[in-house]
Amino acid sequence: MQETIRINTPLTAEQARQLKAGDFVLISGTIYTARDAAHKRMVEALAAGEKLPVDFKDQIIYYVGPAPAKPGQAIGSAGPTTSGRMDAYAPRLLVEGLRGMIGKGYRSAEVVDAMIKHNAVYFAATGGAAALIAKAIKKYEIIAYDDLGSEALARLTVEDFPAIVVIDSEGRNFYTEGQAKYREI
Fold it and tell me: What values do phi and psi take at 87, rounded to 5?
């Protein structure tokens, strides 16, 4: 059985280089959430010469639009959003030092190229496990674009957030490697 790797944020360049496609990880510390509307605003702000609401150097973004929290919970169900929706914006945020992204699904060649260039990794969170993932989220705080509701830029405090390294900083892709094994059968 494969050993689970524990990561405490921020995720440094050295830590990112050590992660390999297929690694199981548990992430603790601070991560950020944002979806396509927030990504669009951030990239537009950068194009206008403005500062971002947060310094993304060595940070991780989770692509999620959480459900409202029930009483006594930090957040409602928090399953991953399809990552391809952020592909038009991700390369620009990687230039800003973003080190990791969490979502589900494939990434474009442009995103993978930018990940290799900027030493970043892409993690997958399990779709369909939104209620379970929410248990790893201890605090949820909107920090910008609150008019976007669940798509706002927010800060999460997480403890043992489960994920799998899908694309590592060398461009190895666990999705394609995993499928190749079955194509040989």
Answer: -60, -30
Residue 39 known to be catalytic: yes
C-alpha–C-alpha distance, residues 86 and 97, integer Å:
16
**Which of the following CATH numbers is that of domain 4-183: 3.20.130.10, 3.30.750.24, 3.40.1650.10, 3.30.230.10?**
3.20.130.10
Token pair 């990687």 is found at 94
Strands (DSSP E) along 15-150, which ranges? 24-33, 60-62, 100-103, 121-124, 137-144
Catalytic residue among 35, 39, 99, 107: 39
Tens of pLDDT along 56-111?
A: 999 999 999 888 888 888 888 888 889 999 999 999 999 999 999 999 999 999 99
Q: Residues 133-149: pLDDT tens digits?
A: 888 899 999 999 999 99
